[in-house]
Amino acid sequence: MKNIILGSILLLAFGLTMSCEKVIDLDLNEASPKPVFESYIEEDSVCYVSATWTSSYYDNSTSEFIPNATITISDGLGNSENLVYQGDGVYTGNTIRGTVGRTYSLQIDVDGNNYTASSTMPPLVGIDSFTVQSVSDFFGGVGPGGGKPTFWVYANYTDPANEENFYAVRTTYWDSVEARYTTDYSIDDDNISDGISTRAFTTFNRFEVGDTLVCELPSIDYPTWLYFKTLEDALSGAGVASAAPANPTTNIQGGALGYFGAWAKSRKEYIVIP
Predict the structure, then answer these.
(1) Which residues of the chain fall short of a pLDDT of 70?
(2) 61 & 131 share domain
(3) Is 9 a member of any domain?
(4) Is residue 115 part of a domain?
(5) Helix (H) or strand (E) holding 16
(6) What is the dihedral of CA 136, 140, 145, 151, to 10 degrees?
(7) Does this model's pTM top 0.85?
(8) Do residues 1 and 117 both lie within one domain?
């Protein structure tokens, strides 16, 4: 993912109207690069960190990797380890594996600058089943294959009662239009569904009978949810009359961007059957 500091440059997305009598000069100052850490530890897996620098608005190249970071993860039980650089900005652990209920701390040093983050792994909430809904209920059911019936797919799960729960939904499927596999993301919480059977919308993609998708449901803590929620808001695009979006709310201290999350996830494959 290309990382760009949002907020000061959004005007260009809408286009600017200039009269022949007056020219408006915009001063789009380039911000100093900041480190971006996309980092997580999953249940029964080692820690993963992707480290890059933010890039300039005017720079269309891939974000620059950070190859010289010193990254340490600890599990709150007196165990810690240094992550090993694998190339292309990626660092991975070796011995510490994710366990539900534990709080993990990340310490990162880049050129003498220190960054820290922590995350607690919530209990797993499993995907119970899937539900399909005919698109014809809303849009006439016109499918991409010459009028074939099309469907939206929902993942069903049971939210634990009397506690705050936060989720991310990750859906991977074959996109016949793009002729490639595509992954869509959404987030959810139990603000209005505490302790009840709930369904989460997987993707706006329309599926035909026989299509296959893979859905993952990570259970995440609030700081991780807040990062993805504010990222989703930024990527959704503000209207012309809306305020310029800010960078996603990070749980990493020290001036870096990105997130550190600890989660357990349910994963199921589904073949669309009406």
Answers:
(1) 1-31, 56-61, 137-147, 237-245
(2) no
(3) yes
(4) yes
(5) none
(6) -20
(7) no
(8) yes
Indicate the helix (H) or strand (E) that contains 138. Answer: helix 136-139
User: Rounded to 5, what percent of the chain is helix, strand, coil?
Assistant: 10, 40, 50
Q: Which residue's structure tokens are 């991409």?
A: 144
- Phi, psi of 207, rounded to the nearest 5 degrees: -105, 150
In a domain, 177, yes or no: yes
Tell how strand 197-201 and strand 151-158 pair up: antiparallel
pLDDT in tens, 126-184: 999 999 999 886 655 454 555 688 999 999 999 999 999 999 999 999 988 889 999 99
Instruction: Tell me, yes or no, whether 244 lies in a domain.
Output: no
d(CA 207, CA 130): 13
pLDDT of 148 reads: 81
10 Å CB burial of residue 224 (0-12, 13-18, 19+) is buried
Look at the chain and report how many structural domains it folds into. Answer: 2
